């Protein structure tokens, strides 16, 4: 490996195990532990909220569970980088004290770290996008959300493939001591980081026009928007990590490399945590009295009289087929959560009768569904 010579073993042999002996290593271990505990707590609260509100689990929940499991692997990998790979100790010192096996483990763990980060990022983003399509099952949301899902999966899959093709032979990606050569892996990381930030921003902005169009008080709109906008915290971590990537050095494994590893592991943990926040508001409120369904309706569009003669009104059909926000956590009954159960009807109004959906379409799919948002805004 350029710039690194293998010294002879020291008298008495190499040291083992690799000690956690400096503040950087200790900080990495603590942060990884927190990255396990906090997302687990939030996902547990999400499950509890859905169970209490008698809501069934959907694809968004499956994706967030997968992201949580992969996050476990990512955090354990971060710890192993310290305890078995000597991360936080310079590579030259690590080889002289512990031999080259920890160094090989270090680079293997680098590769697995990148794979786990990509997988966790994909699952967390898919969870949010599937949440959007559940809440706003209209064409103007489903199509861009589907396009973003495709982009996220394809882009991160390409970064994983690049991780294994950047070196010739491929084994040199995790064994720097064998003959061969590698391309500029830092450039791959930078491109992946930039596209990840762009995807984050697009995903976070996607529901805002729908929220803005709701017939709600400004404060309640702000609360709804804030529940989704907290994801910008993940983007902040990504941007800071991106600014440090050009400083990474394949031989220097102390401050910069350790910080990038910690930030890379922190990002999916925060994403999983924040993806659960929209589900949790009903847990902070209890109903003081039962409300009638009419108390919960906040229509997106003005009501129009239905036409006679057995023909479905364009207003009625478009309102029903364009769907409403599905309740994230519908209250299980009057004795449980108090929240502003707001039935939010989201639809683009078209006056052209030619756009009216047929009654067959209305009876299937999304038509006629009654959706409520339970506890997403403060009590009315």
UniProtKB/TrEMBL annotation:
- Family designation: Belongs to the SAT4 family.
- Tell me where it mainly resides: membrane
Q: Which PANTHER family match?
A: INTEGRAL MEMBRANE PROTEIN-RELATED, PTH11-LIKE INTEGRAL MEMBRANE PROTEIN (AFU_ORTHOLOGUE AFUA_5G11245)
Where is this protein localized, as stated in its record?
Membrane
Keywords tagged on the record: Membrane, Transmembrane, Transmembrane helix
Q: Where is it found, in Gene Ontology cellular component terms?
A: membrane
Topology in the lipid bilayer = Multi-pass membrane protein
Would you tell me the protein name for this molecule? Rhodopsin domain-containing protein
* InterPro entries, per database record: Rhodopsin_dom_fungi, SAT4-like
Write down the Pfam families for this protein, in alphabetical order. Answer: Fung_rhodopsin
Coiled-coil segments:
none
Q: Give the Rhodopsin domain ranges.
A: 45-285
Question: For this UniProt entry, which segments traverse the membrane?
Answer: 26-49, 61-82, 115-135, 142-166, 186-210, 222-240, 260-280
